[in-house]
Design goal:
Number of strands: 2
Number of helices: 7
Distance between the termini: 49 Å
Strand content: 5-15%
Strand order of the largest sheet: 1-2
Structural class: mainly alpha
Order of helices and strands: HHHEEHHHH
Largest sheet: 2 strands, antiparallel
Helix content: 55-70%
Length: 177
C-alpha cells in the first residue's frame, strides 16, 4: 500500500466516488494521473478494500462508483496510527525563481505575474468550495468526529497557502519593479 492508495481509501470513507471524482478530489493533496488511479482502484478492489457499483447513465457512458469495505476502513485506521512520511515537494517554478538572476526583467515579471494569476484562480475556486461546505454543513464542520471535518480543515490549509503564495508573488513583483 502506498500513500495514494491510502488517499483513495480516505476519500471513499466520506462517500462512494468514481475514479474521475477521486482524481479531482486528490488535487488538495497532490497531482495524480488517471493512469495511476485506475490500476490502484483495481488492486484495492482485488484486495477486498473496495466494492464497485456499476451505475447506468442515460446519454453518457456508465460509471463505476467505489465503496470502501470494512476491511478498507480497518486498513486506513491502522495506517492512521503510523507517523506520516516526510513531505515531498517539487515545484519547477521555485527553481526558476532561484535562478531569476539569469533572465531579464520582463521575463522575470511575466513569470511571477503568471504564477500570481494561477494562484488567484485557485484561491477563488477554493473560497467557493469552502463557502459551499459551510452552507451545507454549518456547525458540523467544527466537529472533529464528523466525516466532513478533515476535508474542511485540509481545504482551509490550502486556502491559507494560496493566500500566502499570492502575497509572496506580489512582494517579489514589487521588488522586480
Amino acid at each position: 500500500m502506498n500513500s495514494l492508495a491510502y488517499a483513495l481509501l480516505a476519500m471513499l470513507v466520506r462517500k462512494p466516488c468514481s475514479g474521475y471524482e477521486l482524481a479531482e478530489m486528490l488535487e488538495v493533496f497532490w497531482q495524480a494521473k488517471h493512469s495511476q488511479i485506475y490500476p490502484l482502484l483495481a488492486k484495492l478492489e482485488h484486495d477486498g478494500y473496495l466494492i464497485p457499483e456499476n451505475v447506468e447513465q442515460t446519454g453518457r457512458p456508465n460509471k463505476k462508483l467505489y465503496h470502501i469495505t470494512s476491511e478498507g476502513k480497518e486498513m486506513l485506521r491502522a495506517w492512521m496510527d503510523k507517523a506520516p512520511s516526510v513531505p515531498v515537494s517539487r515545484d519547477e517554478f521555485l527553481i526558476k525563481a532561484y535562478s531569476i538572476s539569469l533572465t531579464d526583467t520582463d521575463t522575470a515579471q511575466r513569470l511571477f505575474e503568471d504564477r500570481l494569476s494561477y494562484y488567484k484562480e485557485k484561491l477563488l475556486r477554493r473560497e467557493k468550495l469552502i463557502q459551499e461546505m459551510e452552507a451545507e454543513y454549518g456547525t458540523d464542520l467544527k466537529d472533529q468526529e464528523h466525516q466532513i471535518f478533515g476535508r474542511y480543515i485540509v481545504h482551509q490549509r490550502k486556502l491559507l497557502m494560496e493566500q500566502q503564495e499570492i502575497a509572496w508573488c506580489r512582494w517579489v513583483l514589487a521588488m522586480i519593479n
